[in-house]
Amino acid sequence: MSLLLRNELRLSIGPRRCEASIWRAGLPARHLGSAEGPGYGEETIEQLLDALQADGHALPAQATACIADEYLYYVVLPASGAWGGADSAARRYFADAIGSDDLLVETSLTPCGSQWIAVAVEPGRVTLLREALAQRDISLRHVRPALLQDLDAMRTELHAEDAVLIVLRSEGASFVDLQAGSISCIVWERIDLADPELLMARVAGHQFRRQPASTSKAPAPEVAVIVVPGDDAQQERMRPLAAAKGWRLTAPLQAPSR
């Protein structure tokens, strides 16, 4: 638990839903109010801020933003050499894979110290946030990738897991390979989660990729699957499929009360 020194506006930015919430400084920080709306853009952010003010809240002078996986690019790289080398390698990777060398890139070391996780976002998305907030004299202090924020919140639960973690989003899922709780690969899959056959096929593909090489004729056991729903509705939709396939279904990421 960290001490929040100043009141803070927290934005959660996704392709279908955005939320703005105000938190009071202290230990622990206290949630004061929220507003949410569909879509993503400067107009949506202005509407959320107007709604908070209409409810009697004073807007804080600083903000943080959590950006959904749909807007981000991830890659996991071996932790060899200094941070500067990892950052350069990540920029080269994204430039080759995506065809753009102006992405904003952030690199962080996994808790086990054996991998770098690099995240990239198109600069225009951050600029839109920064400019929309600046119109209300609010500074954007930090931008967080949704997946890393969620994995950090689950770190105790996943510390010894060896599995394929499926983190459900509104337009697909992030597939995270865990080996003894350490992240070895991250793959974003844009899929229709309402189609169980399609989801099962993608999961089977990731399980197959994770199977260890073996000379034995006996089939290797399937890699465990952990499904992380984003909210209560996704949890209920996934419950029958998870039970039928033997997947572990966790509690939703989105807490019912903030």
State the helical fraction: 25-40%
The number of helical segments is: 6
Give the distance, in angstroms, between the N- and C-terminal Cα atoms: 15 Å
Question: Largest sheet, if any?
Answer: 5 strands, mixed
Order of helices and strands: EEEHEEHEEHEHEEEHEHE
Quick check: average pLDDT?
89
Strand content: 25-35%
Class inferred from helices and paired strands: alpha/beta
CATH architecture of the domain at 154-249: 2-Layer Sandwich
Q: How many beta-strand runs?
A: 13
Low-confidence stretches: none
Radius of gyration: 20 Å
Can you walk through the features of this model?
With 258 residues, this protein is α/β, with parallel strands linked by helices. Among the domains are: 8-68 and 124-146, Nucleotidyltransferase, domain 5, CATH 3.30.420; 154-249, Nucleotidyltransferase, domain 5 (2-Layer Sandwich), CATH 3.30.420. It is 30% helix and 33% strand. The chain is built from six helices and 13 strands. The protein has helices at residues 42-54, 83-98, 123-134, 146-153, 196-210, 232-245; strands spanning 8-13, 17-24, 30-38, 62-67, 72-78, 104-109, 115-121, 139-145, 163-168, 173-179, 182-189, 224-228, 248-249. The strands form three sheets. Strands 3-2-1-4-8 form a five-stranded mixed beta sheet. The protein has a five-stranded mixed beta sheet with strand order 11-10-9-12-13, with helices on one face. Strands 5-7-6 form a three-stranded antiparallel beta sheet. The longest helix has 16 residues, at 83-98. It starts with 7 loop residues before the first strand and ends in a 9-residue tail after the last strand. The mean pLDDT is 89.
